[in-house]
Amino acid sequence: MRISSLSEAGVIYVMTHDSIGLGEDGPTTHQPIEHIASFRAMPNTLMFRPTDGNETAGAYKISVTKRKTPAILALYRQNLPQLPGTSIEGVEKGGNTISDNSSGNNPDVILIGTGSELEIATQAAEVIMKEGKTVRVVSFVCWELFEESVLPSGVSARVSIEAASTFGWGKIYGGRGKSIGINSFGASAAAPLLSKEFGITVEAVVDAAKSLL
Questions:
Q1: I need a surface site. Which of 67, 75, 77, 209 has the fewest CB within 10 A?
Q2: pLDDT one-digit tens code per residue, 96-120
Q3: Which residues does the UniProt record annotate as the domain Transketolase-like pyrimidine-binding (predicted)?
């Protein structure tokens, strides 16, 4: 079968072990930090990294309606909360604002998260807001469905956070922004220890945001 034919089938792939969050469950082969970037590079493919039940339902809803487009749902296995601001409908935009204390579509900084790291972005936003800054938090669940409206061109202070390769994020955060991710192989340890070791933390997001303000 031709590769182009495979890319036109409405198949839904559901992935687990999306990154380092379950590092104590096995060797570094369970921590595929490069896979998300490679899936995003595939033509005519929807790559979803939802953060909770709302976004997972939204991703599945879109996947079953696009019969000529394969879809990949990369899910985590940690116990994480349902986040305020997420929605089934928001997934249709690809990048969805889940919180924003600014006015006039002009926040001081935009924090962009996916999957299990969206919670970290929301926690970092709370820290930054307490210091008098305005912050927009964006769930970037699907690049292929992304609409520019959630990232106003006038706001160059942008920080992305994803427990995976930072490859490709430059086109999202722009020339002045920063990306927090993992550009090396993982390790076998408990999730909190690995997150701290690789800098996937609230503190790292806050520091990156402050450096841009």
A1: 67
A2: 999 999 998 999 999 999 999 999 9
A3: 3-81
